[in-house]
Specification:
- The chain has 202 residues and is α/β, with parallel strands linked by helices.
- A hairpin with a 2-residue loop joins strand 8 and strand 9.
- The structure holds 5-O-phosphono-beta-D-ribofuranosylamine.
- The site of 5-O-phosphono-beta-D-ribofuranosylamine (GRF) has 12 residues, from helix 1 and strand 5.
- 5-O-phosphono-beta-D-ribofuranosylamine (GRF) binds next to helix 1 and strand 5.
- One of its GO terms (molecular function) is phosphoribosylglycinamide formyltransferase activity.
- It holds the Pfam family Formyl_trans_N.
- InterPro entries: Formyl_transf_N, Formyl_transf_N_sf, GART, GART_AS.
- Its EC number is 2.1.2.2.
């Protein structure tokens, strides 16, 4: 399964995907694309010998033009799966529809709770007992697509935000490679009524 990963920053999830790739295994990361030239994840990709591309959203007149150019770069790699790993751009409906059923994202909350930014602080402020992260298929609704895999962790008494972020990240690095591998193996897919694993609804 040829995979293209989109990033904007640190790329620790990208690193987890790189580390989980096995020679001859089902997942092949063909390219890493960033909208920011200074994204540290680009260095991670280069260190792993993966092709990198930069496409600066500020060079385009609008979201539609940026997304169209992005589609062209992605499709030049002919990927079966496109993985968003900290890609900090809202995607147009045209983009999302173009990759329907083959576009995954990871979000640091137990979706459908806490869509959007700043999830960890909001979870702490609300005094939630549990937090976590979700891998989901991307649809036009921001952070709203069908969930494929979730990891749940208890929030510790008196836990500070740095600790919580660190623990959620560790879970992200566990479940994203898992979801990508399941997709690559043909086990995970998007059905008409939601995500399916091994033919059964999730
Ligand atoms: C992660 O917290 C992910 O859930 C969110 O963006 C962050 C990316 O982190 N979508 P990294 O760049 O993979 O370290």
């Amino acid at each position: 399964c040829n995979v293209v990963v989109l990033i904007s920053g640190n790329g620790s999830n990208l690193q987890a995907l790189i580390d989980s790739q096995e020679p001859g295994g089902p997942v092949r990361i063909r390219a890493v694309i960033s909208n920011r030239a200074d994204a540290y994840g680009l260095q991670r990709a280069q260190a792993a010998g993966i092709e990198t591309r930069i496409i600066d959203h500020k060079a385009f007149a609008n979201r539609e033009a940026f997304d169209q150019a992005l589609i062209e770069i992605i499709d030049s790699q002919a990927p079966q799966l496109v993985v968003l790993a900290g890609f900090m751009r809202i995607l147009t409906q045209a983009f999302v529809e173009h990759y329907a059923g083959r576009l995954l994202n990871i979000h640091p909350s137990l979706l459908p709770a806490y869509k959007g930014l700043d999830t960890h602080r909001r979870v702490l402020t609300a005094g939630e007992a549990e937090h976590g992260c979700s891998v989901h298929f991307v649809t036009a609704e921001l952070d709203g697509g069908p969930v494929a895999v979730q990891a749940v962790i208890p929030v510790q008494a008196g836990e500070d935000i740095d600790n919580l972020v660190r623990r959620v990240h560790a879970e992200e690095h566990r479940i994203y490679p898992l979801a990508v591998r399941w997709f690559a193996e043909g086990r995970l897919r998007l059905g008409t009524r939601g995500a399916m694993l091994d033919g059964a609804p999730l």
